[in-house]
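So, is this right?
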Amino acid sequence: MKEKRHSNISGVEIPGEIEYNDLSAKEKDTITNALHRGVTRREFMTWLTATGVTLASAGSIFTSAKTAMAATPKRGGKVKCAMATHGPNDTMDPSLATSTIDYTRHRIHYNSLVQLNDKLIPQPELAEEFSMNDSATEHTFKIRKDVVFHDGSKLTADDVVWSMRRHMGKDSKSVAKPLMAGVKEWKKVDSHTVKALLSSPDADFATVLGVFQFKIVKKDTADWQNPPGTGPFTLKEFKQGVRAVHLRNENYWREGPNLDQIQTTAITDSVARVNALLSGDMQLIASVDPKAIKQVESTPGVSVLSVPSGQYPGICCMTNTAPGNNPDFVMAMKLLQRRKRIVKSILKKQGTLGNDHPINIAYPDHCDTLAQRAFDPDKAKFHLKKSGVTQAELHVAEVTPGITDIVLMTQREASKIGLTLNVKRVPADGYWGAIWMKTPINVVVWNARPTANSMMSSAFAPDAPWNDTLWKNERMGELLAASRAIKDPVKRKEMYCEMQTIIHNESGMVIPAHINYVDGASDKVKGFPKVPLEAFGGCEWPEFAWLEG
């Protein structure tokens, strides 16, 4: 049985006699990402020589690559980080994680089988190697043998199987349970090898395991106030809704971390959170309000960290009722979006243009051949007249900063072509239960998913429970199912482009922009990855960040 294998650094082929400056941009990116992820010199040199590079060239490439990273990590120091929300439901149980503060604390305390790099490509973490069979229905993970939990016990296959089975079964309380729906069994092969047996093909399965909830915990853990993990920091203090204090794990299985201590808390008021950064009370803050970006940028010693992502605000035209059941009305709404102005003025340049489908440049499967939809009021007027609609009501809550301004801009443009768009503002409290998917036109915000398939399956599959506009397209369902079995990159690209084109042209969803993750940091904190899944580079920073000076 043939298998596709992933080693410590993957994706490039480097000839024997070569210098770092001779490498392609892709090869440099791959090497730099590996070094940022904490790969050891031994692992790096072993991989390069295995690809045919001479020992001398391998050493030269390693040295040049480290120099190209522009800064050398320093050991020591404490960092305080403030998120936007916390409360009594804060948890150290990864299966229940739903917030940025949870995701960050779990990355500090635990590891996963794989970790996603800046391109959302899975890399080895606790699994030193992973593979799939030809049909993508069987995935094998070989576990590192040098890893110990914070209590000194060794990591084995039993811990991995127990961790994964927590997300399965009718009694599971895991918020990631739907992502395990296609798994028939997690099976122990030997002391350090496990297999996931799937009921249907899924070539993206390893990528999905990089999401926040799939951290590996010790078998039979019951005390979630101070559970043993394998991560770069141990837990000194954990108080829900208050703070947590994390200390460097001196027995960490990988080189690092760099910091001595991290304190995580939250400041729920956005103005107070920015002020805490500017005053130096916090070295890192999540979710800088677009209106405060200029203030942060103009203050010496602090900076805005902006990572393009797949998260997006949307205007949902319900296709099961008027006026969203009229394709010409929906097309008029799409053509009324002043996308460049939205990114520049409302998002303060901290975003990318939307194209009325959810898969933007943050995803490897983004369709770059699909033409960008432009603002076209004349064409919008044509479709509006054809629809026969002259008046509509749109419910909006500020579910993400800027969404109300986007709606009001749409309202102004609609009035110019003969559409009276009545905007009804409602509170965010109770919005998801009372308004979303219940009124003819409403708004939504989606965070990115680790794969294009998981994103589209969540929101655009015919049977998806969170299909915002109740849009049902049989071809879309067929492509989503079939593409999970495809490993050939050319065929895969064709299928994903077709899906994005179908959504772009036919769904009831208007997506004018994608929102960057925008955070704030002291200039003394260095070494941020750029994984586009959450704040601070997918919450990957704790292991790799360091303090300069």
Remarks:
- Residues 65 and 331 are 49 Å apart (CA to CA).
